[in-house]
Amino acid sequence: MDQFIVIDDFCKTFGKGTVKENKVLSHISFGLDKADFGVIVGGNGAGKSTLLNSLAGELKLDSGKLMIDKQDITQTDTTKRSVFISRVFQDPTLGTAPRMTIAQNLALAYKRGQKRGFKPSVKKDDLPLFKKRLKQLDLGLEDRLDADMDSLSGGQRQAVSLVMATLTKPDLLLLDEHTAALDPHTQRLVMQLTDQLVREYGITTLMITHSLSDAVAYGDKLFILNHGELVKTVDRESKKSLTIDNLFHSMGTL
Ligand SMILES: Nc1ncnc2c1ncn2[C@@H]1O[C@H](COP(=O)(O)OP(=O)(O)OP(=O)(O)O)[C@@H](O)[C@H]1O
Ligand SMILES: [Mg+2]
């Protein structure tokens, strides 16, 4: 049976035909079932962000096909994809609008795919949902709906970004080292929130991390990239018994 997300033979070379030619994605193929939480690891420059950027439609592949729920969306542009593919970035300032309030940011996310005005109006009817979702974070943000985004700490912003990215359940959630800029305590908190939201709403997710402990502790499947190639896939069963030592060893011997 077809998988929910099918990444079929993604290839990308930067600087083709020049001395700087760099094969960044080389025949990458894998799939995810609905509600799968996939984790991607690999050294610097392995091609992880390039893969996520191409899934978001920000980067044009040389070849390859992307299917979501049996629909071929290879030619669908970033804006259209953003209706059903959401992202949280490494930089806490990137996912949210700094001079808008928490409520306005959530209203913007809630309108995803609908026609947007310049500054979103916050509908009174939507407030209970926004409050409910913020309360789940347990950071007291449900009482700060009118606070400007840029008055929040990096961890609080990442938490709100996660709520925004999951508010209208996306087909695919992309997380590119979204905890890397946070202090260790906040990293743990945001990682736990991520897992909680992904599980509660059954969101199909791909997360890049350099944290081997997170790669072992979270997610259902693991993909190791090295020099643009998918060198190892750890399936659901094997992932249950994966240890940091085994993973470190598999990555170290590449
Ligand atoms: N727009 C671009 N033009 C040219 N080369 C690029 C471009 N984007 C990425 N690259 C190159 O592609 C390779 C893979 O980069 P990518 O950002 O995907 O790596 P990564 O696995 O995310 O690394 P990191 O762990 O450091 O974030 C690198 O060699 C990088 O220099
Ligand atoms: Mg990267």
Summarize the structure.
The chain has helices at residues 48-56, 78-81, 102-110, 127-135, 154-167, 184-201, 212-217, 236-240, 244-252; strands spanning 5-14, 22-32, 37-41, 63-68, 71-72, 85-88, 172-176, 205-208, 221-226, 229-234. The protein is of the alpha/beta class and 254 residues long. The two termini are 32 Å apart.
Please describe the topology of this protein.
Blueprint: E1 5-14, E2 22-32, E3 37-41, H1 48-56, E4 63-68, E5 71-72, H2 78-81, E6 85-88, H3 102-110, H4 127-135, H5 154-167, E7 172-176, H6 184-201, E8 205-208, H7 212-217, E9 221-226, E10 229-234, H8 236-240, H9 244-252
Parallel strand pairs: 3-8, 3-9, 6-7, 7-8
Antiparallel strand pairs: 1-2, 1-4, 4-5, 9-10
The strand count comes to: 10
Which ions and ligands are bound to the chains?
adenosine-5'-triphosphate, magnesium ion
Oligomer: single chain
Provide the succession of SSEs.
EEEHEEHEHHHEHEHEEHH
Strand content: 15-25%
**Which regions have little confidence, pLDDT < 50, spanning 5+ residues?**
none
pLDDT averaged residue by residue: 93
Query: In CATH, what is the class of the domain at 5-84 and 170-252?
Result: Alpha Beta
